[in-house]
Amino acid sequence: KGTLAHELFERFFGAHKAIDSITLSEAEQWARGATESLIEEKGAVLLVPGRQSEKEDFIAIVIRAVRELVGHLQSADVVKVEMEKELSGKFVGGGVRGTVDLIATNSSGECAIVDIKWGGFEYRRKSLVESRYLQLAIYAQLARPALEQWPALGYFIVRDARMLVLDSPYFPNAVVEQPENGESLLEFWQRAEQTWKWRKKQIESGLVEVTVTGTEPDDDSGAGESGLPMPETFDAFDDYTVLTGWDERS
After folding, report:
1. Which of 15, 125, 174, 201 fits 163 for a cystine, CB–CB 3.0-4.6 Å?
2. Inter-residue contact 209 to 221 (CB < 8 Å)
3. Residue 69 DSSP SS3
4. pTM of the model
5. Angle value at C-alpha 203, between 199 and 205, nearest 5 degrees
């Protein structure tokens, strides 16, 4: 569903370059027809018998999301939207690259990077409050040389049709969260680079920490006050659990 939503937004902004001239009713009408076609092309699983209700729920969710996202862009006086923008650059460890879901530019030339997520509003909100937004920070670091500024950063949660922004008034109607430690984006990035140096030094000395369920941190598990906090476990989205063993129920 998240993949389909991304595709829908990409098609929408590809067909609607003039953001300020889009009416919300036009956005809804376009989204309804485009979603039906998109499901037939790439979401056939929603067409199988017994999933009609799920399909209709999905259509309603993405129509609302398109309308609300357009509303947020218009309220921010956005004049240009770039979807799936590929960025590459350097950091203390070498080269890094990534693909940004959405880059918005307003009439003053100010930019915002928005990562589009299907769900997880509360999880993403806590990541901003607790300074755990490394993916967004990497995007900001990649975009900064070209933009000549730190962009505003945020998430758009499709299922909730809500914009969530890190410490910025860029989107006037968004939910704005500030890091509880009071650090700036630059300070966060400096801690991220310090954390990379710390881990690299460990690896070069032969130490590899496996942070999976069932393990406990030790004296070498923390990067110190100058680094980012390390989660006790980090295997919730692990595709390679066979490399770290099975639990007793397996």
Report:
1. 174
2. yes
3. helix
4. 0.90
5. 120
Contact 158, 101 (CB under 8 A): no
Q: How far apart are CA 69 and CA 102, in angstroms?
A: 11
Nearest to 114 by CA among 68, 74, 171: 171
**Can you spell out the DSSP letters for 9-47?**
HHHHHHH---GGG--HHHHHHHHHHHHHHHHHHH-GGGG
Q: What is the CA 51 to chain-centroid distance, rounded?
A: 28
Using an 8 Å Cβ cutoff, are 116 and 124 in contact? no
Tokens coding 238: 């692990």
The pair phi, psi for residue 164, each rounded to 5°, is: -125, 120
Cβ atoms of 137 and 189 within 8 Å: the answer is: yes
**φ and ψ at residue 166, rounded to 5 degrees:** -85, 110
Is the Cβ–Cβ distance between 32 and 55 less than 8 Å? no
99 — phi, psi (to 5°)? -115, 120
Tell me whether strands 152-157 and 111-117 are parallel, antiparallel or unpaired. parallel
pLDDT tens for the 250 residues of the chain, in order: 999 999 999 999 999 999 999 999 999 999 999 999 999 999 999 999 999 999 999 999 999 999 999 999 999 999 999 999 999 999 999 999 999 999 999 999 999 999 999 999 999 999 999 999 999 999 999 999 888 889 999 999 999 999 999 999 999 999 999 999 999 999 999 999 999 999 999 999 999 998 888 788 899 999 998 999 888 777 777 777 777 766 655 5
Provide the sign of the torsion angle of the four alpha carbons 143, 146, 152, 155, taken in this order.
negative
